[in-house]
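Lecture notes, unit on protein representations.

Consider one protein chain, 173 amino acids long.
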Amino acid sequence: MPARYSFTCNCCGKTYDEVPLCFGGEYPDYYFSIPPEEREQRVELYESLCVIDESHFFHRGRITIPITDHNEDLVFNVWTSISKDNFEIRNDLWNDPARVDHAPYFGWLQTVVPTYPDTINIKTVARENEPGLIPAIEVIEDNHPLRHDQQNGITFETALEKVQQILKACHKE
């Protein structure tokens, strides 16, 4: 399978130079429970960190689904909750190369991952990457299809089906 080839959306007919394999949400799901007129006062949002009401802490990470017969993976940039203590540790280690040696952080997934059922509040752990990269998120929820795919991988054909479903849903918004 070549690394790049054009890809056409079945829904709208748009042609991409390559298959879009990275998707993600701009905000943790909890963000949407805050009325829009209150967000400026109650939400602190940074590129990869979010605090709501000074008591709910979130960080962005990346769930990678290996594509077993392709040279790239399907990637979802997601948000997970994180304890206040771990949030402070993450901030303290933000630019420290040794952060990769830190123990994983437990969290609850706070992003709807398209094509997978019921992903809000499933169990995860975040493993730090080197500075400049968001953590790798591992789904640890027993018997969840997202965990299965993350551990076992999917075929390129399945990835293409998921991409088509995601793009079709985007066009409905």
